[in-house]
């Protein structure tokens, strides 16, 4: 992805400043909001990447959209605008979140289910991830009806597949290779 290396550097600097000011949690919430908003709004992303829109308009639009930002986050926006890199704001936000999670030993768990998780099930999955890995986790739920039922859990390099589709596939292979059943 274009701008990732620069975004990592900006995120590292923002995290360092946030640590010094003891506002890492507030800045992380800001970055979550910025990332979700930019990723869900094609118009906002187009405005940020447009060379036609002036930087002062971009800044005023961002400050109007994100009214309750921490001082460190506002300063980061100012620096990105000043350096002509406001187009990578959402990438900087993503990199900040990654570095924040690494600093706090929080892992990303991805759960694929046939239906969306409810709150109770989400809490059980997070508890199981903590039991398996020994660290906290954030949970991302992907809904994929093709797995029919059950779930697929991924945490880093670990994957646990308890989906109905996988079990049916395994059963099909076993029946296909069974000499007694294949004669019928």
TrEMBL record:
Keywords: ATP synthesis, Cell membrane, CF(1), Hydrogen ion transport, Ion transport, Membrane, Transport. It is a peripheral membrane protein. InterPro entries: ATP_synth_OSCP/delta_N_sf (IPR026015), ATPase_OSCP/dsu (IPR000711). It is found in: Cell membrane; Membrane. Coiled coil: none annotated. This is ATP synthase subunit delta. The gene is atpH. Belongs to the ATPase delta chain family. One of its GO terms (cellular component) is proton-transporting ATP synthase complex. Its main location: membrane. It comes from Christiangramia oceanisediminis. One of its GO terms (molecular function) is proton-transporting ATP synthase activity, rotational mechanism. NCBIfam families: ATP_synt_delta. The keyword Cell membrane applies. F(1)F(0) ATP synthase produces ATP from ADP in the presence of a proton or sodium gradient. F-type ATPases consist of two structural domains, F(1) containing the extramembraneous catalytic core and F(0) containing the membrane proton channel, linked together by a central stalk and a peripheral stalk. During catalysis, ATP synthesis in the catalytic domain of F(1) is coupled via a rotary mechanism of the central stalk subunits to proton translocation.
């Amino acid at each position: 992805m274009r701008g990732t290396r620069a975004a990592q550097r900006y995120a590292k600097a923002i995290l360092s400043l946030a640590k010094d000011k003891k506002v890492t949690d507030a800045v992380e919430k800001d970055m979550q909001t910025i990332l979700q908003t930019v990723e869900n709004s094609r118009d906002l992303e187009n405005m940020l990447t447009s060379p036609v829109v002036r930087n002062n308009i971009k800044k005023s639009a961002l400050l109007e959209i994100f009214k309750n930002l921490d001082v460190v986050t506002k300063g980061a926006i100012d620096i990105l605008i000043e350096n002509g890199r406001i187009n990578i704001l959402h990438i900087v936000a993503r990199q900040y979140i990654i570095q924040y999670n690494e600093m706090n030993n929080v892992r990303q768990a991805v759960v694929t289910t046939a239906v969306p998780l409810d709150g109770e099930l989400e809490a059980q999955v997070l508890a199981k991830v903590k039991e398996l890995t020994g660290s906290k986790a954030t949970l991302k739920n992907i809904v994929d009806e093709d797995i029919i039922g059950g779930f697929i859990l991924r945490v880093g390099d670990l994957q646990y597949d308890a989906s109905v589709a996988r079990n049916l596939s395994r059963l099909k292979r076993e029946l296909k290779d069974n000499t007694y059943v294949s004669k019928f």
